Amino acid sequence: MMTTFITSLGVFVYPQVLVSISIVALCLGYTISWCRGELLHRKDHPWVRTLVPLGQISVTIGLLGSVASFIIAFSEFDGGFNIQKVTQALSMGYSSTLFGIGSMLLASLCCYVLDLQVQETAS
Q: Do 106 and 27 contact (CB within 8 A), yes or no?
C-alpha cells in the first residue's frame, strides 16, 4: 500500500518526502531537546522558525502537485476520454495534497505542543 501511495505522488514524491522527513526529524529533535531540558529558558522559540516554513513549503508542494495533476488529467480529453489516465492523474493530485497537508499538520501540532510545554515550565 505504501509503495502505491508513493508512486501515486508522481514527480513530486522526492521534494515532498524530503520536506516531510525534515519535519519529522525536527519534531523529534526538538522534543528530545525539550525532554532533556535544553529548551526551558529559550524565549526565541527556534522550532517556529524552522517547522512553520517547512510546513508551508510542504503544503505548497502538495498543491503544486495537485495543479499539475489536474492539468495532466484534463489534458487527456484531447484524444478521447480515457478513465484510467484521468483517475491516475487525479489520484496523484489528491495524494500529493494529502501528503503536504499531513506534513503541515504535524509541524503545526509539534509547534503548538512545544509552545505549551515551554510556556508551562516558564511559569
A: yes
From first CA to last CA, the distance across the chain in angstroms is 46
d(C-alpha 80, C-alpha 77), whole Å: 5
pTM of the model: 0.79
Q: Which of 47, 20, 6, 27 is nearest to 104 (CA)?
A: 20
The 10s digit of each residue's pLDDT in 28-86 is: 999 998 888 888 777 788 888 899 999 999 999 989 988 888 887 777 666 677 778 77
Where on the phi/psi map is residue 37: left (φ > 0), alpha (ψ -120 to 50), or beta?
left
Contacts of residue 96, defined as CB under 8 A and 6 or more positions apart, other chains included, come to 9, 10, 12, 16, 61, 62, 63, 64, 65, 66, 69
pLDDT value of position 19? 92
In sequence order, what are the residues at sequence separation of 6 or more whose Cβ sits closer than 8 angstroms to the Cβ of residue 65? 9, 10, 11, 12, 16, 92, 93, 95, 96, 97, 100
